[in-house]
Amino acid sequence: MFEYSFLQHYWWFIISLLAGLLTLLLMVQGGQSMLFSLGKEDHHRFLMVNALGRKWEYTFTTLVTFGGAFFASFPLFYSTSFGGAYWVWMLILLCFVIQAVSYEYMSKPGNTYGKTTYQSFLFINGLLGTFLIGAAVATFFTGSEFIVNKGNISNLTGDPITGLVISQWQNPLHGLEALFDVRNWLLGLAVFFLARTNACLFFINRIDNKELVEKSHKYLLYSAVPFLVFFLAFLFWILLGKGYASDAASGVVTLEPYKYFFNLVQMPIVAVVFLVGVILVLYGIGRSIFSKVFNSGIWFSGAGTVLTVCSLLLVAGYNGTAYYPSSIADHSSSLTIFNSSSSHFTLTAMTYVSILVPFVLAYIFFAWRSLERKKFKAEDLKEDGHVY
Amino acid sequence: MEILNSSLIDWSRAQFALTAMYHWLFVPLTLGLGVIMAIMETIYVRTGNEQWKRTAKFWMTIFGINFAIGVATGLILEFQFGTNWSNYSWFVGDIFGAPLAIEGIVAFFMEATFISIMFFGWKRVSKKMHLAATWLTLTGATLSALWILIANAWMQYPVGMEFNPDTVRNEMNDFWAVALSPVAINKFFHTVVSSWVFGAAFVAGVAGWYILKKRDLEFAKQSMKVASVFGLLGIILTATTGDGSAYQVAQKQPMKLAAMEGLYDGQKGVGLIVVALPNPEKKKYDDGVEPYVFKIEIPKALSALGYRDFDAFVPGINDIIKGGYIDAKGVKALPFSEKQARGRKAIHALSDYQKAMKNHDTANAAKYKAILKENYSYFGYGYLNHPDQLVPNIPIVFWSFHIMVYIGGFFILFFGLLTFFSYKDKLVNSKWLLWLSIASVPLAYICTQAGWLVAEIGRQPWTIQDVLPLQAAISSLSVESVKISFFIFFILFTALLIAEIRIMLNQIKKGPGAE
């Protein structure tokens, strides 16, 4: 029913969309990173923790679904990146493990390590989790050191173990070497500050506490400026630098000047989505900074975040581009949406499952609305009975 | 290139086992307690009795404490397929990844969405909407179990796929064969209903403690009533599906069955061991030494269990290695040496096929492809060097199986008695039964862990039965890296477990009145 190529594009779009949603939901992590600054006062921190605590599972679930969808649709990425950039992914996972228990345990008697420890876990998750995810995604543009050789699995004469592994990482730091590339730092920091920016906008929109909202406005400025600086620096660097082009016929991957810029030009719909996304983010931030009464910035910035991130990943994967480039030697091991995807059958089956996504979004919307008719007030939170 | 050796396999296995075992400390309570609290809330909505609401809310608090750490350990489990089993992720990712993705889309979001209404929505949504949210939270958790168990069952019994030499991986060609395989269906029901028993034992244990302390008696009696009936129903279903599991194992994984019963040499009309004293002189499967110095068995029961025939031949470990018997498919089983030779033939054919394709030599490519196809059923055996590698750890599998069965038997009796005494309202004076209820909590943990030890260690050396052994499934990492991450996880999970237990005990001490 569906062309294989269409399905490969479709699933890259789903992955990109999930990445966009995940980046938006990282506002939970952004808020956590301000627990000890914006939330210096106990009653402010209480409000912040409880406002964020009702959202953390969505971020977590989106991360898990992002992983599962990547596994199902592009298993060679799962195999190569997770098995290769081991330490980066392990650190990201550890950051999220310590988050998962923190909300539920921090205020419970007998929690063994004290409230501050769990809040520190949330802070670490907010700081490192966002930065590392950003840095890891930056390697989609900057490349990683790996070789893929599918012939290895039938090599019975080499090392009985290493000789069989299809994806071989070539750097002993197993992913941490990405930290030696400034461009990865730029996107890591951009994601970190964007998460904080969206968190500030979320607090402005959801919290009924004048003092905290005022402080959030101040912190919005502190976060939005560095976000813009780091994001624009990364953006210009990749748009004006070389990108990994993949030849459709031969599959040969080469470094091509202005590849990502030309991708935008050659895919006008993606370019429009990208620009709309950027404008929405800027509008959401700008108006919230300049107007003390405007509290809907999160809707604009949130939608803009999803569109911008989604379109950036489309730029990384569409139009004859290697979305997970191998930066070594001839780049021939680079992953494209064609050489790393699941089979036609599996992508078709998964596509039928994806029809459920609007239904899932509908009940999430319903639940969110049911719980958030009113803004967060300390008194209401206590009445709800389940407070952190 | 880093230096790798076989201990990388052991450490990678250890790390995965550690995560899975920790994860499985929490999941059965989520599945079992979820139903119990949903039943309690249903009674509250139907009767309007506020005490039932307090009871349900107390168990929801316990559910939340347990759920958080289950989520934390589950995250690591999913990503470890990629981090530590890189070849596996490519070689079977086309089939294995799909259930994981469906689990995320269908189950996790349902769980995450409705759990927030369950916890925060008491005053924000209607009674009926809240009740629906509680049931949907449980439905999400159960659907999550369904998809991950489909994935696990496929590892035990790979169906619905075909090997593609061009992409060098197995590719799904029948979704429903994967999703509805008899192993998957049986595994799902056995796991879920045994989790019901787990939840019931947990609730009974805590409620028993309250009754012994003569505290919150109404709450405790309500909890006991629900737990006892639910536990009894659960254990009956667990026994039934357990029988189905044994049958599936006999048909699809005879080596696992042989290890479960410590059966070295097969015969017709084999008995099921009830009690046995292992012979310490028995060092190896083929040393000819009698495995037991003493045993009591139910005559012919293993034949009946595995083949629905009291006189059926059940192959032992030596038979499976030497071959020559008629297997469950009615085919004469090949010896290990022949399987190994055919596996190597398939692997070499794959290599030759790739070379031929590279040279555009279509004639030879077709020839090698045919050889590969003919021998693919034994592909995984080509990586094995010695028949010893086929034999899982017998003492662990044997004792895990028997401990699971003993505790399962205990639960049949226990829940029968508990139901009787609970509905006769005689629990307050039956201190021995209340103490037994408390003891049933650790027994439930041991039982469920033992069940998974049988399933997973019994499958060794395969990650995918007959297709992919451990050594061909692994990631190219240094042993040191995996050792470090193992200890990080070990320390972290243990620290969180300590916190979880202390919080739960505190919450139980505070009681339902604290809510």
Task: Give an overview in words.
The complex is a heterodimer of chains A (388) and B (515). With 388 residues, chain A is mostly helical. Chain A has one domain (4-384). Chain A is built from 15 helices and four strands. In chain A, strands 1-2 form a two-stranded antiparallel ribbon. The termini of chain A are far apart. Chain B has helices at 7-47, 50-84, 86-91, 93-120, 127-156, 175-179, 182-213, 217-252, 254-261, 301-307, 317-322, 336-358, 362-375, 394-423, 431-457, 479-510, and strands at 161-164, 169-172, 267-268, 272-278, 292-298, 313-314, 462-464, 468-469. Chain B starts with 6 loop residues before the first helix and ends in a 5-residue tail after the last helix. Chain B is globular. In chain B, a hairpin with a 3-residue loop joins strand 7 (462-464) and strand 8. Chain B has 515 residues and is mostly helical. The mean pLDDT of chain B is 94. In chain B, the strands form four sheets. A two-stranded antiparallel ribbon of chain B has the order 1-2. Chains A and B meet through helix 4, helix 5, helix 6, strand 2 and helix 13 of A and helix 2, helix 3, helix 4, strand 2 and helix 12 of B.
